[in-house]
Amino acid sequence: MQKQRFLYIIFIMRKNVYLLVLLLATLFMPCKGQNAQKLAKNLNRTIDSQLDTLTMLPADSATFYKRVSLMMKNALVCDFYDASPVRGGAVNSRYRELNSKRLLRYVPELENAGFFYYNKRQNSEAMDYFRLYLDCSESALFHKYEFNKGQVAYYLSLLSYGKKDFTQAERFADVALKDVNYARDAAEIKINCMHNHLKTHADSTQYLIALLELHDITPTNSVYTGMLLEYFSSPGHESEMKQFALDETRKHPENKETWALRGELDMKESKWDDAIKSFERAIDIDSIYVEAIYNTAFCICSKAAALQDSLQNSKKRLSKEDIKGLRAQYEEGQKWLERTSVLDPEEKAVNWRRLSEQIEKVLGKNKKK
């Protein structure tokens, strides 16, 4: 019991000197029965005085918030001792109902204080108030209050992440995930925290599973897709990347980017026909998908170049039929490239001019032959 009391007060005292003194007193004085009741009584008197002082302070001020914080910490410790069992194991809380009624109105001030300092970019202070707000949400003293735990936990997660405290950031993100209004943003923080914790194979597996689950929930979220592609792009994950692309086109056949990804993977393996089919599926979904249109041109021309190399290696001289067939393929690629140039004249999306010049040279040579 003594150890639990020690840990509890450590948890809520934070940078509070008064509570530190209370902690030291607790360590050297057993708090059972009458002793606990006496401590609760003294703390309750302190709360009486603090309430009187607050009425003389302007709201929305640093001094006001500081006094509210101290009072609420005292209230939590007071309630802890007030709920301690007396002789025989019975619990007889004398101050819980009173303090619940008179202090309930100050709970939102802790949240207000957090944003007061957050807007001033005093993040450490903001986090202290946000944490105390969540501490209050766990107390039976304020069970009647409807807490904005999701919002406060999200900002604590965000600020912890900014301090590179990824363990705390993930812990608060887990709380925020339960709030539908903050679940999406909290999930991004959580998955980034997991990414920064990748040390073992088990960590990587857990990270990938969580990321895939989030991606399945919101397949159009570019953040999750980008993180998955980053993971699969690392050495040793080539087969996983290909399987991911195949699975995505099956699960989300209406998503142009999944077809484009599948096409790009086939391009890397020089599977030109398969790549062209994937890019054409992407273009069917979005007829002005510049990257897919350009890649189709590139694949057609690459297929023609591969065929030309093969013919030249097997023959001393290309026949007229060979040249005619090659020319038809390059001209087909040129048509796709012309579509690209119309949609992207300034090459903001893709650099198509270099390929265009190469096709013109090849067609010129074939024409001379």
Question: What does it look like?
Answer:
By secondary structure, the chain is mainly α. 75% of the residues lie in helices and 0% in strands. The chain has 18 helices and no strands. It has helices at 2-13, 17-28, 34-54, 62-82, 96-103, 107-119, 123-137, 149-162, 166-176, 183-196, 201-217, 222-233, 238-251, 256-268, 272-285, 290-314, 320-343, 353-368. Helix 11 (201-217) packs antiparallel against helix 12 and helix 14 runs antiparallel to helix 15 (272-285).
Outline the fold blueprint:
Blueprint: H1 2-13, H2 17-28, H3 34-54, H4 62-82, H5 96-103, H6 107-119, H7 123-137, H8 149-162, H9 166-176, H10 183-196, H11 201-217, H12 222-233, H13 238-251, H14 256-268, H15 272-285, H16 290-314, H17 320-343, H18 353-368
Termini Cα gap: 96 Å
Radius of gyration: 33 Å
SSE string? HHHHHHHHHHHHHHHHHH
Low-confidence sequence ranges:
14-19
Mean pLDDT: 85
Q: What fraction of residues sit in β-strands?
A: under 5%
Largest sheet properties = none
Features:
elongated, 369 residues, mainly alpha, single chain
Quickly describe the structure.
The chain has 369 residues and is mostly helical. Helices cover 75% and strands 0% of the residues. It has helices at 2-13, 17-28, 34-54, 62-82, 96-103, 107-119, 123-137, 149-162, 166-176, 183-196, 201-217, 222-233, 238-251, 256-268, 272-285, 290-314, 320-343, 353-368.
